[in-house]
Write a structure and sequence with these properties.
Layout: H1 7-25, H2 32-46, E1 57-60, E2 65-68, H3 70-73, H4 76-114, H5 117-138
Antiparallel strand pairs: 1-2
């Protein structure tokens, strides 16, 4: 199958592949899944020169692999996307985990198991809303670690 891209489209594809592989490989060591994604990245980076995007990919002869150039890694769109992603994930996970902790502490697992799904969602969402409101208003200002622990 042959797909034709403009240099601008290919650059966008390289950024997308770079960001996807950054997300997959950024938190773990290699496994079968990451090898599959690495192979796709290698293919896209290998064809960069022919697609008019040679400044975004470079070949390392000793490692026999293609890597993003500094220009790609420092691209403002890439950096901005990474920062936005990290920020969104941070707040979403913080809210979710604190709400889950408080929901479990308030009702206990046995009581939660007896609740209908709709009731669970409503009660859980009260905790979520409390943290969303707090963090939107004060960010981390009011977060404290109980030093008695």
């Amino acid at each position: 199958m042959q797909v034709m891209y403009t240099p601008e489209q290919y650059e966008a594809l390289m950024k997308l592949v770079y960001l996807g592989n950054w997300m997959v490989n950024g938190i773990k060591t290699s496994d079968e899944r990451t090898k599959k994604f690495d192979a796709i990245e290698q293919r896209i980076f290998q064809d960069a020169e022919d697609a008019g995007c040679g400044s975004l990919s470079e070949y390392d002869e000793p490692l026999k692999k293609y890597f993003p150039t500094q220009a790609l890694e420092e691209d403002t769109e890439i950096i901005g996307t990474q920062k936005e992603y990290n920020t969104e994930i941070f707040w979403a996970e913080l809210v979710e985990r604190l709400a889950q902790r408080d929901f479990m502490a308030q009702y206990g697992m046995e009581a939660i198991k007896t609740m209908k799904e709709r009731e669970q969602k409503e009660k859980f969402s009260e905790h979520v809303k409390r943290y969303v409101d707090e963090f939107e208003k004060n960010e981390l200002t009011n977060i404290r670690i109980d030093s008695r622990l």
